Amino acid sequence: MDNTLVRNSFKKHFATEGELYFSPGRINLIGEHTDYNGGFVLPGAIDKGILAEIKPNGKNIVRAYSVDLDEYAEFGMNEEDKPAQSWACYIFGVVREITKRGGKVGGFDTAFSGDVPLGAGLSSSAALESTFAFALNDIFRLGIDKFELAKIGQATEHNYCGVKCGIMDQFASVFGKSGHLIRLDCRSLEYEYIPFDPVGYKVVLIDSVVKHELASSAYNRRRESCEAVVAAIQKHHPEVSLLRDADMKMLAEVKDEVSAEDYMRAEYVIEEIQRLFDACDALQKGDYKTVGEKMYGTHHGMSKLYEVSCEELDYLNDVARECGVTGSRVMGGGFGSAGCTINLVPEEKYDRFIETAVKGFTEKFGKAPKVYPVTISDGARKL
Questions:
Q1: 202-206, 221-225, 245-249: which range is least confident on average?
Q2: Do residue 115 and residue 256 come from a single domain?
Q3: Is the pLDDT of residue 337 over 70?
Q4: Does 167 have pLDDT greater than 90?
Q5: Which of 129, 167, 247, 305 can pair with 153 through a Cys bridge, CB separation 3.0 to 4.6 Å?
Q6: Confidence of residue 326 (pLDDT cuts 50, 70, 90)
Q7: Range of 292's domain?
């Protein structure tokens, strides 16, 4: 993104120049609702993110300006100094989490802006946390490793923003690598870079801009279903502690011991973990046709077995198939909270697909969807 706006805003507010840092948002190609089942995810950093200019100010305060909101915040660095603005809590939280780990952070001035679309499921909050965690680590020479930087971002959300998130978003933002996705084991946090260089294809997100109420109770019920099935399988296979340890044969053994709904939820998770492995194998061979088939399989599973899609996202998925798109699926946890599909589109079919999807969606639902082409890029860095 262009740094002129941030540079000018910083100079206007603080009459000096600092250093520039950038952290990206992320996509997840495949692997949904696998994280809390100890499974795997396949995120990648994208070319949209948060850009911040930062400079120590020699005081024990943080002075921050949000360019996009045109809001200013000033706050101390102790626990009782939590700012009122929700966006400033992310910066404050990063400072506090570094301090808790023994890092000595001085006061600083900052201006920041982002081009990660808010509410599209691209993890703008993780990008914000990673930008400041990476920058403060660099500026104050704290020597914190990348793993801990990701955990600082996650802990910020837990302790200062009231969001009990997993680690995937922060991990992708910090560890991102151009031309690669990251296969992350959510249990051990072991990871492997998987090549992603879809020559002849475009990756595009279509945001339905429709927000259904996210029912935390519905999310919790999905987790409880998974736990109920694990408890049933454990009676026959004590070594199974999470659904990632189970297979379809084990699930079939307990079909009469669990509810039909719980069975269906577990079936989706077990199949999704296998789809992710199959997609990774296909990516290693450059077989994007198979990758696309697995993406459609994920959408079907999330819609019919896990039941976390919605009419608008199912419509976008159907249009993708009709237009010859190689792969398409709902991206994010579903429940309509981040109403977005991720699509792997042959270049020669791209224009027709976008035109058909936007026109048809607008006519059917009375709102035009937003279109975000993305490229896989590097993680947090100094510019």
A1: 221-225
A2: no
A3: no
A4: no
A5: 129
A6: very high
A7: 203-374
Closest CA to 200 of 287, 275, 297: 287
In a domain, 380, yes or no: no
Model pLDDT, residue 333: 58
Instruction: Give the span between the Cα atoms of 247 and 303, in whole angstroms.
Output: 21
Query: Measured in Å, how far apart are the chain's first and last C-alpha atoms?
Result: 11
Q: Which of these, 106, 109, 3, 117, lies nearest to 49 by C-alpha position?
A: 117
Q: Same domain for 56 and 183?
A: yes
Domain count, the chain: 2
Q: Which positions ≥6 away from 123 have C-beta within 8 Å?
A: 25, 26, 116, 169, 172, 173
- pLDDT over threshold 60, residue 349: yes
- Examine the domain organization and report whether 27 and 145 are in the same domain: yes
CATH value at residue 63: 3.30.230.10
Checking DSSP bridges between strand 43-56 and strand 19-28, what pairing results, if any? antiparallel
What is the largest distance, in Å, between two alpha-carbon atoms of the chain?
70
**70 & 173 share domain:** yes
Q: Which one-letter DSSP state was computed for residue 104? A: -
Is the confidence at residue 329, as pLDDT, over 90?
yes
Active site residues: 169
Has residue 250 been placed in a domain?
A: yes
